[in-house]
Amino acid sequence: MLIKTPLVSAALESEVTPEAVYLSRRRFLSAAAGALAAGATTAYADESRYADVEAGASPAWFASKLPQVHWQAVTAGDEALTPYSDVTRYNNFYEFGTNKGDPARYAGKLEVEPWSVMIDGEVGKPGVVSLEHLVQPHRLEERIYRLRCVEAWSMVIPWLGFPLAELIKHAEPTGAAKYVRFETRVAPEQMAGVRSGFSLIDWPYVEGLRMDEAMHPLTIMAVGLYGRVLPNQNGAPLRLVVPWKYGFKSIKSIVRISLVAEQPRTTWESLAPDEYGFYANVNPQVDHPRWSQATERRLPNSLFKPNVMPTRLFNGYDEVASLYGDLDLRKYY
Ligand code: MTE
């Protein structure tokens, strides 16, 4: 992301289950074949979309979840999926550098096993929980969502995850919980961007949601994409995905989830409050001070095929409009 001033895998080491990845790909392919047979024009009709999914190691906790996945729980209609290669090589993950290729190049260094998450604040059941225990109670769903970055590019990504609402309910929020605050891991030895003296970000990367936004059924905690475990560059092993907000709200590699009474101070808002708001709802009518938000460039694109399309309010997820009622979206951008 840009601001005015110039301004990081190991799967469960022993557990390598390429079969799980293979099996999940078979599912995609059979879904594609089914769609083709039915003459459908869904993303699944385009089998080649899965052609570039790299096989990878699946930790045991993830592999055990695959047989119960609810595939295509949410789709993006007939919008084609962004190829795996773009989803995993064109990233924003400033902990690993500011260039789009840096996360794919350097995030392999991030040790994601073991991983634990602290759940604290206004909850009846605070504690530190291992990733395996955190994910265990939840059935994974495939959610095919548009991702619209504030930088005016977009993708369509098949995530695997579960509703954040389920996690929050498990923690038993108290009546004082009005917001959810998320924190990314800070591991300078594994994260070149954190070590860098040039970064203006006050680590950890922090994001937040209002409680009703966090409880909305579209809001998920993702642990995978394209039927495989989340690649490090996409925020392994646990990230947030809020499809109606600019991508920067979808914080990666989460180690702390706090239910709080006050609106949290978030990373980009703290850095450049005139440019990036707390709400960050996708809105074609509220331009960024330095560029228009009316359109977006859908990846993959090229000079000859710019693939520019109109941006939609709430990124096309109209069902969230009721969360904002009379809120002045120009003021609360
Ligand atoms: N989370 C952390 N911790 N650090 C980041 O730099 N970048 C955000 C978001 N989450 C970021 C982050 C931005 S700007 C975007 S657009 C999305 O991640 C990109 O997600 P992707 O790389 O999986 O497409």
Secondary structure elements and their pairing?
Layout: H1 18-37, H2 60-63, E1 70-74, H3 84-89, H4 102-106, E2 116-121, E3 127-130, H5 131-135, E4 141-148, E5 153-163, H6 164-171, E6 179-184, H7 192-195, E7 206-210, H8 211-215, E8 220-225, E9 228-229, E10 239-241, E11 254-260, H9 267-271, E12 295-298, E13 308-310
The chain binds ligand MTE.
Question: If you had to describe this structure to a student in words, what would you say it looks like?
Answer:
The two termini are 17 Å apart. This protein is 19% helix and 21% strand. The radius of gyration is 19 Å and the shape is globular. With 333 residues, the protein is α+β, with helices and mostly antiparallel strands. The protein has helices at residues 18-37, 60-63, 84-89, 102-106, 131-135, 164-171, 192-195, 211-215, 267-271; strands spanning 70-74, 116-121, 127-130, 141-148, 153-163, 179-184, 206-210, 220-225, 228-229, 239-241, 254-260, 295-298, 308-310. Residues 4-23 and 29-47 have low confidence and may be disordered. The chain has a single domain (72-320), classed as Oxidoreductase, molybdopterin-binding domain (Sulfite Oxidase, Chain A, domain 2), CATH 3.90.420. Strands 1, 4, 5, 8, 9, 10, 12 and 13 form an eight-stranded mixed sheet that branches. Strands 3-2-11-6-7 form a five-stranded mixed sheet. Bound molecules: ligand MTE. Ligand MTE is lined by residues 1, 91-95, 147, 149, 184, 205, 234-235, 247-248, 250-253. Ligand MTE binds at residues 1, 91-95, 147, 149, 184, 205, 234-235, 247-248, 250-253.
